[in-house]
Amino acid sequence: MTATIPTFAPSSPSRLRAAVLAVWSVGVVAYVVSIVNRTSLSALGIETADRFAITAATLSLLAVVQLGIYGALQLPVGLLLDRFGAGIVLTAGMAVMAAAQVLLAAAPDVGVAIAARLLMGAGEAAIFPGVLRVIGMRFPRRIAPTAVQVTGLLGQFGQIISVVPFAALVGLSGWTAAFLSLGGVTVLTAVLVAVIVRERRPAVVERTPVARAVREAWRSPGTRLAFWVHFVTSFSGNAFAILWGFPFLVAGQGLDAGTAGALFSVYVVGGIVLGPLVGAVSGRFPHARTALVVSLVAVQASSWAAVLAFPDRAPLPLLVVLALAMCAGGPASMVAFDIVRDHNPRERLSTASGVVNGAGFSSSILVILAIGAALTLQAGGAEYSPAAFRLAELVQVPFWTAGLLLVWRAQRAVRLSSAPEAP
Fold first, then answer.
1. CA quadruple 257, 323, 301, 60: dihedral positive or negative?
2. Considering only CA atoms, which of 49, 35, 271, 254 is closest in space to residue 163?
3. CA dihedral for 104, 125, 356, 160, sign (positive or negative)
């Protein structure tokens, strides 16, 4: 059987560059909108709990089901991308996210809200892998790491949109109107993607059976290293940005909503500064990638340790440091895709990327669930206190420990596989 890989028709170099930049730019817009959709509840945790009369553990479930379906669909999405290309898959993902927001807008109870977030995760699962494919297939190898980082950091503007203007819109217009508006914006983005991200005449290549493609991707030591890099770098920042950061800052640290929103802006701006630097280092010094990742994870863990060491509330400057440390998780996780791109052929790239992209969301699910469970066990879901958050955030420690050990083990396997054989 055969599958299709998109190619370009002959044209002038300048027109080709313009076409690539246009397609990538639309992909970035789609990614920004997907982040707004993903984190639309991040500044509304307390409001969501009140609206549906739920505990912290159930509130965690809203994020967990979304991340769970996202992670579970990464491999199928990768296979679909390898078969159909980015345009069709991205458009379908945006349409599904729009439907999810309409359902959430009208949700009468938490059961329907959970179904909406499941649908949200299913749609979002297609977006970032689709943009990665655009980069992997159309950008030169030396530029691709920086393009991935720039994509990631621009996407994080969606976090600011969800925390500041979207949260304000909910306050001004109400839950239903705000989420319907976001669904409408997502529909418009789907139309833009359908028009711009189009495929040209295909080249015919051999299609590898699904099970074999997955086995071959996982057999590569580089894929396994990328998997554990994504696992260990993603969960702390995701738990902070998607659900527990805002309640931690407001209820756990006593900040007002405006100050907490400003710290989320620091989180995004820090990523804007750090992302291109990490991408440049990853692209120029590929052998230093593991050391770079370990250093950034150490910064995250150290920052949490400093904040949680205070018996009551940490000083604001230290919370700024924490926000900056959290922003390191995004750029660090993008290094995983540089690794997987260098260790897999193009016809298997999206499948391998799907395997890797599921890692960080799996760890994020477990950490978000564990934090919610720890808060509920301590206070029965009735309150969020500095003491409760201090214990709850400590659930990250075993994940950092196990993740770093597995990164070290996978890095050894990569070195052994590339070492010359003894005569």
1. positive
2. 35
3. negative
Residue 3's beta-bridge partner residues? 205
- Name residue 173's amino acid: S
Residue 7 in any domain: the answer is: no
- For residue 417, which amino acid is it? S
- Return d(Cα 189, Cα 31) in angstroms, integer: 10
Contact 395, 371 (CB under 8 A): yes
Nearest to 43 by CA among 329, 264, 304, 374: 264
Residues 6+ apart with CB under 8 A from 122: 69, 70, 73, 96, 100
Assigned domain for 421 exists: no
Please tell me whether the overall predicted TM-score, pTM, comes out greater than 0.85 for this model: no
Q: Which two tokens stand for residue 45?
A: 């945790």
With respect to residue 4, please indicate whether it lies within any of the assigned structural domains. no
Structure tokens that stand for 340 in this block: 């997987």
Residue at 170: amino acid letter = V
What distance, in Å, lies between the first and last C-alpha atoms of the chain? Answer: 41
Decide if 135 contacts 109 (C-beta within 8 A). Answer: no
341 class by beta-carbon count within 10 Å (0-12 exposed, 13-18 middle, 19+ buried): buried
Amino acid, res. 250: V
pLDDT digits (tens, 9 = 90+) for 376-403: 887 654 456 778 888 889 999 999 999 9
Tally DSSP H helices, then E strands, for the chain: 21, 2
pLDDT tens column, 220-257: 899 999 999 999 999 999 888 877 888 899 888 888 88
Number of domains observed in the structure of the chain: 1
The residue range of the domain holding 43 is 15-198+210-415
d(CA 378, CA 314): 21
Cα separation, 153 vs 269, whole angstroms:
8
In the chain, the amino acid numbered 98 is A
CATH code where residue 62 lies: 1.20.1250.20
Assess contact for 363 and 399: CB atoms under 8 A: yes
Query: Cα dihedral sign for 200, 204, 205, 208?
Result: positive
Rounded to an integer, what distance in angstroms lies between the CA atom of residue 396 and that of residue 323?
Answer: 16
Is residue 268 situated within a structural domain? yes
**pLDDT given at position 7:** 43
